[in-house]
Write a structure and sequence with these properties.
Length: 241
Amino acid sequence: MGFRERSEWVGRMALLTFVLASVAFLSAILTMRFAIQGREIVTPDLTRVALSPAQRELEARGLHLRVEDRVYSSLPAGVIARQSPSAGTPLKVGELVHVVVSLGQQTVTIPQLDDRSLRAAQIELLSGGLQTGEVSSAHLPEFPPDIVLQQDPPAGSTDASSPHVDMLVSLGPQPPAYVMPGFEGLPLAEAQQQLSAAGLKVAKITPLPLTGRPPGTVTSQLPQRGARVEPGASVELQVAQ
C-alpha cells in the first residue's frame, strides 16, 4: 500500500470513527431524554377520594402525599377536598402531592376566648375538637400580659371553614428601652464600667490584632451606637490586641 492509499485509508477510518462516536452520543442523549420522560407521572384526581386510598394510589405511582390542612366542608369527613398540584400535572417520581382533607360539616360552635389566658384558650379549643391557629401578640399597656384580646372566627360562629382559631394576645406594657451608647475608642475597663451602670452585659470580647489602635481599646461593638436596646441586653465588643 502506497503512501497515498494509506493516507486515504487513515482518513476514511477517522471519518468512520467520528460518525460512530456522533451516533453513540446522540443515542445516549435520546436514551436519557426518554428515561427522564419515562419517570414523569401524571397527577391523578384525588378530590372526593378518601385519604387512605388516595395515599395508596400515589405510592403505586411513585408519588407521596402530604396533608397540609383539614377544613370543614360539605364533603364527608376524611375525603380530600383540595389538592396541589391539580390533576393532570406531570410530576417526577418521589415528588409530593399536597392535599387538604375534609372534616365534614362543622358540628361545634366557636367558644368565647376573649379575656382568657392563652393557655386556657388553647385548652378550651382542644376540648372542643378545635385547634390553635396563628397567635399574634402586641404590647398594649392597658391590658395585662398573656390575655386573649381578639379571636377569628368570632365566638358563637357556626359557619367556620377551618378548625383553627387565630388569636391576638397582649404582651402587656412595652418594656423600657434605651439608646445604645458608643464605646469605640474607650479603654475596655471604662466601657465595661459604663455598660454595667446602664444595666447591660458584656456577652463577648473579641481581641483584634493589627488595628492601629492602642492595646485594650474598643474598636467596634454590636449592637452599634444608637440602636434600641432593652435592659439586660448583651453587647459584644471588639478590642485592639
